[in-house]
Amino acid sequence: MEITGIYATPGYSGFFFDDQRAIKQGAEHDGFTYEGEPVTDGFDEIRQAGETIIVDIELADGTVVRGDCAAVQYSGAGGRDPLFKAEEYAPVIEGPVADELEGRDAAEFLSNAELLEEMQVDGDRLHTAIRYGVSQALLAAAAEAEKTTQTDVMADALGTEPATEPVPVFGQSGDDRYNNTEKMFVKGVPVLPHALINSVEKIGENGEVLLEYVEWLVERSQELGPEGYEPRFHIDVYGMIGEIFGAPYDRDEVVDYFAALEEAAAPYPIQIEGPMDVGDRADQIDAMVELREGLEDADVSVDIVADEWCNTFEDVQAFVDAGAADLVQVKTPDLGGIHRSGQAVRYCEGTETRAYLGGTCNETETSARACAHVALATNAAQVLAKPGMGFDEGYMIVENEMRRTIARRKREQLPTDAETDEVTADD
């Protein structure tokens, strides 16, 4: 079935764009926003509304499918593409992108997505958000053309066998780390709570505030969780352990703190995202390898998650090859085409590193659903509940998309009445 039209409509995403450099330089809160001037190119305010481009692909039979362009909350930072402005990029989709893709066979997802991935306009590759959103629509178009699920299309493209149960969903609390986490406990969320530990105040000058919070997690999970509930704690510290302790990261003081985290979380496993942020990829890898070796030598079972400086497919490869993390976050918008996220998850296969299919709160319900299919197709270790920072909505979207897809696949794999009768006659 041919692709007959591609259309781009500017819209809103599920959160906001924040000028990370301005915030790190000390911008103060003004209610929900920030005071002061932005410092990153493209920003008009330090915090401004997140944007998306709604991508509609029309097929020869009149069917219309969707994908949503999205960029991470901290756009324009850490080597990422510039701030994503929908009005600026919509003409690119309806112009050069449409010219390349219209008339192509919608069923050929991988070749279409790879063509998009390599496209250049005026000598530059397409913004990662464009590649992300259009490739989602291409995935949906292929599923429609083949009358199958997006999970099966992605699995065929990657050469995988899809998961038969939902991938564990990872809930993110935002700053409301107590109320939102209690919601997660009541719903039995398997991986939680992120907790947004991004200041000395939140971690404590010696890490004592975070230890108290982890102890609270254990107590409330046992009080509120369903019977048999065994959560995995995942906390993002935004480099704050490095801020309060400093290098080297394999010394006793640092290792002892991780041992205290392990003890506070018992009997549940705990993983720490972004323990330090040292300024570039090579040094970040070295620091995380140093920390992991120190923990291993001391028999401390706290998993380390790569986030800072692990943005692109090549970054994921570098962290995995160096053994720098127990988990790597695959930040879906930063990898461009959605198939690239699937390939990054697959790169972890056969290694000691697990893949966390992440992304950003600043996505949409459409991109979140598309990522649920990537998670199922690759059987990732965990998948982020998104978009937004309210938890409930993102969890519902991702969990339900996986459940309905698994149910559909099971129905379609059941033998028909005619097939059952034929087997019975043969017997």
TrEMBL record:
GO molecular function: metal ion binding; methylaspartate ammonia-lyase activity
SUPFAM superfamilies in the record: Enolase C-terminal domain-like (SSF51604), Enolase N-terminal domain-like (SSF54826)
Protein name: methylaspartate ammonia-lyase
EC number annotated for this UniProt entry: 4.3.1.2
Source organism: Natrinema zhouii
Family: Belongs to the methylaspartate ammonia-lyase family.
Domain Methylaspartate ammonia-lyase C-terminal: residue ranges: 163-410
Active site per database record: 331 (proton acceptor)
